[in-house]
Amino acid sequence: MNLTKHKIAFVFPIYNEEGNIGPLYDAVIETTAPLLAEYELEFVFVNDGSKDTSLEKLIALRQEDARVTVLSLSRNFGHQMAVTAGLDHADADAVIIMDSDLQDPPRVALELVARWEAGADVVYAQRRSRQDTLFKRATAHAFYWTLQKLASIDIPRNTGDFRLLDRRVVLEMRKYREHHRFLRGMVSHLGFRQEAVLFDRDARHSGTTGYPLKKMIQFALDGILGFSTVPLQLISRLGVVLSVFAFIGILYVVGVKLFVPQTAVSGWAFVTVAIFLMGGIQMIMLGVLGSYVGRTYVETQRRPLYALGLSLTSAHEDSKPVEKVPALSELVGASR
Questions:
Q1: What are the pLDDT digits (tens) for 79-104?
Q2: Number of domain units in the chain
Q3: Of 75-84, 226-235, 262-271, 307-316, which gets the smallest average pLDDT?
């Protein structure tokens, strides 16, 4: 092995992708062949508690190719945690994050590397088109529009986690240990020199998405609540607006009683409706506050982000607990 070569690591989160692992590996190997003259490659597959035969297929890949690293989480922790585990364990000059369903074309990785070689620290793949359902496209558009309006940082639209991160960026990312993770927001928050590569997203090769509507909504909330305090500010603004309307209503009622008492209508229906309306608004406000309080509670528990059940790395054939993931105290100390 040429020790002077730089290293590029690919991180693939895996959840029930038994039908995609083989085609994905073949496509990546074929695509990255031109890089072998200048770079050493590592392929980090993170099994996120798959219930099919994904882990067995990954172990078989590891036996065939020593460049393959297999990390298997002890249960399903979610896509963002799986990617985090890959970033924590990838020791390379650049890391490319790529989904495992072949919607992220491996050929685009060459463009990401070229931009990185030209000096970019982060190169994110931005979707020019996507082969998804009308509902998926509409909800994605609504999400990015809302995020752009509310987020305190500029998060590029029509991007996923498909991107290249320079080693410096990866080391900084390891300092971010919050549990409700929105990785593309974290990368934007870091700064550095970031550039886009446009691409056409392919259709899913096989299997079903690991992001049903419920998870998509939770993911959207993680993005909004994690990078915006606007919902809290809206509560105050709504309270001011309601107070103004209430004051106008009081003036109206007093005016009717004083000047045209014969038009006053007795009854309790309007009062009852108003009470229920205000009660509903208050419950919504408490729900928003509760979301932020709940996130604070989770972070104060300081639990590990994930747990590894198995690790097969390029340095060790046997399964073992990985020790090179820094402790939270070390990460906090390193950021000071």
A1: 889 999 999 999 899 999 998 888 88
A2: 2
A3: 262-271
d(CA 76, CA 55): 13
Q: How many CB atoms lie within 10 A of CB 302?
A: 10
Give me the DSSP letters along 177-246. --SS--HHHHHHHH-S-EEEEEEEEPPP-SS--S--HHHHHHHHHHHHHHS--HHHHHHHHHHHHHHHHH
3-class secondary structure, 16:
coil
Average pLDDT over residues 264-274: 57
Cα–Cα distances in angstroms (integers) from residue 278 to residues 46, 69, 273, 274, in the given order:
48, 56, 9, 6
Domain carrying residue 152: 7-228+305-334
Partners of 94 in beta bridges: 8, 166
Q: Which residues of 247-272 are buried (b: 16+ CB within 10 A; e: fewer)?
A: eeeeeeeeeeeeeeeeeeeeeeeeee
The answer to the question of residue 52 being in a domain is yes
CA dihedral 132, 134, 137, 139 (to 10 degrees): -130
